Amino acid sequence: xxxxxxxxxxxxxxxxxxxPTEVATLFRVDPRTVTRWARAGxxxxxxxxxxxxxxxxxxxxxxxxxxRSERIA
Length: 73
Fold this sequence. Notes:
- It is built from 4 helices and 3 strands.
- By secondary structure, the protein is mainly alpha-helical.
- The radius of gyration is 15 Å and the shape is globular.
């Protein structure tokens, strides 16, 4: 049997992605701010097949932790 040619996509699909609204809720900002952060290169944008923006949860959580650390220091 041959493997499915899009098997690598399964790994990408397994990565948890957040919507702009979910990211905005975590940071307590407007979703438009999340879009600006992505344009500025602070966040990686992943486009779905339908062209909808999503953000890797791992990266978002790291940025959130970093921003919390900066507020404490």
